[in-house]
Amino acid sequence: MTRRRGFTLVEVLVSIAVIGVLIGIALPVLAGSRDAARRARCMANLKSLGGALSMYLNRHDVIPFAEFGVDLERGFAAPLPALAEHLDVEPPFWDASGDTARTGQPWLCPSDRDFASRIGWSYVYGAYDLIALEAAHSPNPLVIVTRIFENNPALPIIFDARNFHRRGVPSAFPEAFRARNVLLLDGTVEKGNPDKHLLAG
User: Fold this and answer.
1) Entry pTM
2) How does 95-107 read in b/e, with b if 16+ C-beta sit within 10 Å?
3) Residue 12: pLDDT over 80
4) Which of 31, 95, 142, 166 could form a disulfide with 178 if both were Cys (CB 3.0 to 4.6 A apart)?
5) With DSSP H G I counted as helix, E B as strand and the rest as coil, what are the percentages for the chain, rounded to 5?
6) How do residues 57-82 score in pLDDT, each as one tens digit?
């Protein structure tokens, strides 16, 4: 009769250690791929918003008006309704009964866990502060600000409100891996630091 040999304790421990190492290698890769998918969806959102912005600009010869950052609870919705006219979606709205903003694609970055629910969208309209500044001493602030963006192609017009895509990326990684998504007036979406862009512009 043949005697069957079982696994020794050492073999079992080595197998468990190898499996543990493989899991340790696989988990960051899976987390990174999920973040890459969320970033890609966010960039697609900005592409959609860029398309709507381009259609608005073609129709009106100026970019949408907004003097304040979006804050639906306080009644500041611009430029969302103007962009929504050129998208097949409703603009976000404030639900007073739930004390939250009701929003969805393309207004919501998949990596945004709470910002859009408080404000209305996950992004910043980079023109609102310039429009407010020009409105103080110009009868045609939109014309002036539109020309500023047209003459400064590196100036972001819409960008991530927060660095939503930084989660899970080690601090040792280059800044490019932790950068926000920015939309330029020509419809280009890229990774960058909007503060540096704005300062350069």
Assistant:
1) 0.78
2) eeeeebbbbeebb
3) no
4) 166
5) 50, 10, 40
6) 999 999 999 999 999 999 999 999 99
* Dihedral-angle region of residue 198 (phi above 0 means left; psi in -120 to 50 means alpha; beta otherwise): alpha
Burial class (CB in 10 A: 0-12, 13-18, 19+), 178: middle
CA dist list (Å): 66 to 62, 113, 142? 12, 25, 9
Residue pLDDT, tens place only, 159-186: 999 888 765 544 544 444 457 899 999 9
Structure tokens at 154: 């590196």
Helix residue ranges, H only, 6-162: 9-60, 80-84, 115-119, 128-135, 141-151
3-class state of residue 65 by DSSP: coil
